[in-house]
Design goal:
Blueprint (H helix, E strand, L loop, with lengths): L5 E7 L3 H18 L3 E7 L6 H11 L5 E7 L5 H11 L4 E5 L9 H11 L4 E6 L5 H13 L11 E5 H10 L6 H6 L5 E6 L6 H4 L1 H18 L2 H30 L7 H33 L7 E7 L3
Parallel strand pairs: 1-2, 1-4, 2-3, 5-7
Antiparallel strand pairs: 3-8, 4-6, 5-6
Helix pairs in contact: 1-2, 10-11
Length: about 300
């Protein structure tokens, strides 16, 4: 039995249909391998029976774990809610389950733990199953334009050491995209890939896709220079057009060629004008990126209540 105290942070948003199976799958692994652990369930404004299912589960099972339910004040989305759960967790190591769709063997849970104690601070489990085209495009573009050196990919769940959590908290209380911050925090990271029980599970999981669409768009702004690059490229194109128009005008003047009156001056003005607009946009985007880095230092979630669930 491992003596390290483990925290299990689970994101819940209208997941009543899957919760019992998820708990039946993962909890025996912790009960068989760890002397002490806690279960931190983040209720992100569930409107179905998710919380009731959890309470009934605790009532009918004999659990070794301390069970806490973090009720968010309103719907925060995955990152804000999991930030709250992470901050409340007290374990030496913290498991983060961003969703409760199980497509892996329970043994994978211990595989990431053993990989962690080999000398890593963050270890993720990643499915070898199929990804949506949009996910593949996102990861490709993100890794090409990311400001950090670490590359990200699809992750099912992860384990994080207390040292990594403290390192990240020292940077800023609010983490808009944990996966990206973890991969670029300067500590050792690793990924364990497993064969999914259902290679299409991530494609069929519509809930996960809808939860992450906004996050994916925001991440390009937070952690990459994609917009700056696009703006700079377009700015360069219009600069070349402006220079080309200048050369064309000079060539016509030297050759004495007559053109439609006002055409050259109009096109030159438009090209130079668009160049100025996109040059200004590049400066604005750079300014916004600096501003966003300062915003990261603010805590941006509201917890309504923390409820301890115990068997009567």
């Amino acid at each position: 039995m491992e003596k390290k105290f483990i925290s299990i942070v689970i994101y819940l948003h209208n997941a009543a249909a899957y919760l019992k199976f998820f708990l039946d799958t993962i909890l025996p692994v912790y009960e068989e391998n760890f002397e002490q652990f806690e279960l931190v369930c983040v209720d992100d404004a569930c409107s179905d029976e998710t919380v009731e299912v959890l309470k009934n589960y605790v009532e009918t099972k004999t659990l070794k774990a301390m069970v806490s339910v973090v009720h968010m004040g309103f719907f925060h989305g995955l990152e804000g809610a999991m930030n709250a759960g992470r901050d409340i967790a007290i374990g030496d190591f913290v498991y983060e389950f961003d969703d409760i769709f199980v497509d892996y063997e329970p043994e994978v849970i211990m595989e990431v733990y053993h990989k962690l104690i080999e000398g890593n601070d963050i270890v993720a489990a990643s499915s070898k199953g199929k990804l949506r085209l949009t996910s593949r495009v996102f990861y490709s573009l993100y890794n090409r334009t990311s400001r950090g050196k670490g590359k990200i990919g699809p992750e099912t769940f992860r384990i994080v050491s207390r040292r990594a959590i403290n390192r990240i908290k020292s940077v800023g209380q609010y983490i808009p995209y944990r996966k990206a911050v973890y991969m670029n925090c300067g500590l050792n990271t690793a990924t364990i890939c497993y064969n999914s029980k259902d290679v299409n599970v991530r494609i069929k999981n519509k809930t996960v896709a809808s939860e992450r669409t906004t996050l994916a768009l925001d991440s390009f702004i937070y952690f990459t220079n994609a917009l700056e690059r696009i703006s700079a490229i377009v700015c360069g194109i219009f600069l070349l057009i402006t220079v080309g128009m200048g050369i064309y005008i000079a060539s016509d003047i030297l050759k004495g060629t007559s053109t439609v009156e006002g055409w050259l001056s109009t096109m030159s003005f438009l090209a130079f004008g668009f160049f100025g607009v996109f040059a200004l946009l590049t400066i604005i985007l750079k300014y916004l990126s600096v501003t966003l880095n300062l915003i990261f230092r603010q805590q941006r979630y509201l917890v309504s209540d923390i409820e301890k669930v115990v068997k009567n």
